[in-house]
Amino acid sequence: MPESAVHVGSGKVRELYELVDDRLLLVASDRISTFDVVLPTEIPDKGRVLTGLSAFWFAHTRELVPNHLLALRPDGRSTECRRLEMLPIECVVRGYLTGSGWKDYRATGAVCGHVLADGLRDSDQLREPIFTPATKAEEGHDENIDRERAAELVGQERLDEVEQTAIALYTFASEYAAERGILIADTKFEFGLDSEGLLVLGDEAFTPDSSRFWPADEYEAGRPQPSFDKQFVRDYCETLGWDKTDPGPELPEEVVAGTRARYVEAFERLTGISFDDYLADPQVVLR
Ligand code: Q0N
Questions:
Q1: Of 138, 214, 228, 242, which has fewest CB within 10 angstroms of its CB?
Q2: What was the pLDDT predicted at 3?
Q3: Which stretches of 141-271 are DSSP H helices?
Q4: Residue 270's Cα: distance from chain center in Å?
Q5: 59 lines ligand 1 (CB under 6 A)
Q6: Sign for the pseudo-dihedral over CA of 266, 49, 201, 148
Q7: Which pLDDT score is estimated for 138?
C-alpha cells in the first residue's frame, strides 16, 4: 500500500482505501475479535480465508444480484471494488433465532416487527428466514429497526427490493452450506447503489465475520451453539476470567493453530477448493 493511499474507511479488522477511477481496495487483516474486542494476537491467513470465501460467494450469486467485486489481487487478501453509494442500513437475514434476535424475541415476542410463534427456544430454526434490518451505529452495537423505520431511511420500494434480494441470497447460501455441514444461522449484507441507481451487493458476503457459522453435526436447539470458527478462542477466553473489555488477552499457540485450522476447514468445506490451491492462485475461487 503506497504511503499516499487515501484511507476511506475502517472496520475492526478490515481497511478500505481509495484507488483511481472510483475503485476501492478492501484489505482483510488477520486480526480477530471476540466479545467485540480485537485481540492482540493474529490468526495467520484469516484475512485470506475471508477474502477467498467472500469472492467465492460473489461469483456464485452474481445471477441473483450484481456485486461490487472487480478483482481479487494475488495476495489473496485484497479485492478491488466498485465504489457505491451505500444504503444507510445493515441488511440482516436470520434463519435461526439467536443473538439480538433471541434477545428481542424474549423481551417482546417479535424481531424487527416480525411477530414470531410462541415458545421458541434459543437457536431454534425459524419457519422461514426473516429480514431484520438494523441501523449502522458509529460506535457500539447496531440497533434493530422495524421495516417502517427502514423504509424511512431508504424508501419503501428500495426496501422491498433489498428484502427480497437479501432473503434470496440467504436461502441460496444457507442451503449450499448446510449440504456441506455448516449452518448459517444469520448473516449481514451491505448494499449500495451504482452510478445508475442499480442495487449492488457490497462489503463481504457469507464470511464467518459477517455471519454466524455453526457446525451442523453439533446443532441442538434450546442452548447457545458453538461457533464454527471462534469457539476455541471464546472457550480459552472464558478460562481466564477476563472482563471482556479492551485490551483482550494474547492467545497461546495451540489456540491460534486450532482457530486457523477451523477457518481453513470452513473455506475448504464451502468452496470445495484446497486452501493451498487458493494461496497458489486466488483466482481459483472465481471459476
Ligand atoms: C463502504 N463500508 C462499510 C470495509 C467495509 N463498495 C463500496 N463503496 C463505497 N463504500 C463502501 C463500499 C464497500 N464495501 C462500505 N464503508 C464504506 C464497512 N466497511 C468497513 C471497512 O472495511
A1: 138
A2: 58
A3: 147-154, 156-178, 231-240, 253-271
A4: 14
A5: no
A6: positive
A7: 78
With beta carbons less than 8 A apart as the criterion, state whether 250 and 40 touch.
yes
Q: Give pLDDT, residue 2.
A: 60
Rounded to the nearest angstrom, the distance between the alpha carbon of 9 and the centre of ligand 1 is 7
Report the interhelical angle of 46-61 vs 156-178 (nearest 10°): 110
- For the whole prediction, is pTM greater than 0.90? yes
- Hey, what's the cell of 3? 504511503
Cβ contacts of residue 25 below 8 Å, gap of 6+? 1, 5, 16, 17, 18, 19, 78, 79, 80, 81
Tell me whether the omega of the peptide bond preceding residue 249 falls within 30 degrees of 0, making it cis: no
Cα–Cα separations (whole angstroms), residue 5 to 11, 16, 17, 29, 57: 17, 10, 6, 17, 28
Q: 26-46 pLDDT, tens per residue? A: 999 999 999 999 999 999 999
Report residue 207 as a C-alpha cell.
464470511
Give the separation between CA 194 and CA 205, rounded to whole angstroms.
Answer: 18
Ligand 1 midpoint to CA 80 (Å): 12
Helix (H) or strand (E) holding 72: strand 69-72
Question: pLDDT, tens digit, for every residue of 163-202?
Answer: 999 999 999 999 999 999 999 999 999 999 999 999 999 9
Q: Is 69 in the pocket of ligand 1 (CB under 6 A)?
A: no
77-97: per-residue pLDDT in tens?
999 999 999 999 999 999 999
How far is the CA of 173 from the CAs of 64, 180, 184, in angstroms? 11, 11, 8
